[in-house]
């Protein structure tokens, strides 16, 4: 029963990824995705670039991406219910730390990089020191993340997670690029 539930989650995630692309092959889309009121609306909106852009942004909302990620990772890692209960709080905590670090430190560094041509050597040295600190904090967070995960899942599943993250992000980026190409 649990494997069936995981399979359904994965199928849902795949359908959602296919459903986000209005230019997906019609035979694939029609065979894999049931007709719903929202998919009919998406087809109508595809003729209007502004409406399509709004629809794509809604399709790729953070909540929807998170739901797809949960289903995809749970399936790819074949997490038991007990593992999933322990895994997701750790994953979300470290993801939040990583995101917060990017939002604060990296954004400040990026601003500095835009003006680096006007910097003195001393100002550039300060920016470089800040960048090194940022990289060390990212590395420390990732190492702590792996240590925390090792108390919940096996080393193999940790590496499968890395592979699943890569594949998920690759599919998401491909979907984003595809939707961007249709709005131009």
Automatic annotation (TrEMBL):
Signal peptide: 1-24
Region (Disordered): 24-60
Organism for this UniProt entry: Psychroflexus salis
Skewed-composition ranges (Basic and acidic residues): 34-60
Keyword Signal: yes
UniProt cross-references to PROSITE patterns, sorted A to Z: PROKAR_LIPOPROTEIN (PS51257)
Name of the protein: Uncharacterized protein
Keywords from the UniProt entry: Signal
């Amino acid at each position: 029963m649990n494997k069936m539930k995981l399979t359904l989650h994965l199928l849902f995630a795949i359908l959602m990824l296919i459903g986000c692309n209005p230019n997906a092959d019609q035979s694939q889309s029609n065979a894999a995705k049931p007709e719903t009121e929202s998919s009919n609306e998406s087809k109508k909106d595809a003729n209007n670039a502004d409406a399509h852009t709004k629809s794509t942004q809604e399709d790729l909302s953070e909540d929807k991406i998170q739901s797809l990620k949960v289903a995809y990772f749970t399936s790819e890692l074949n997490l038991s219910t007990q593992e999933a209960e322990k895994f997701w709080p750790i994953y979300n905590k470290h993801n939040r730390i990583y995101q917060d670090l990017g939002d604060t430190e990296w954004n400040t560094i990026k601003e500095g990089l835009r003006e680096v041509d006007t910097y003195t050597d001393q100002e550039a040295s300060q920016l470089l020191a800040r960048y090194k600190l940022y990289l060390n904090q990212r590395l420390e967070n990732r190492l702590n993340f792996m240590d925390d995960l090792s108390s919940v899942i096996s080393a193999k599943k940790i590496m499968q997670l890395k592979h699943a993250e890569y594949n998920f992000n690759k599919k998401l980026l491909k979907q984003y690029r595809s939707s961007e190409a249709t709005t131009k």
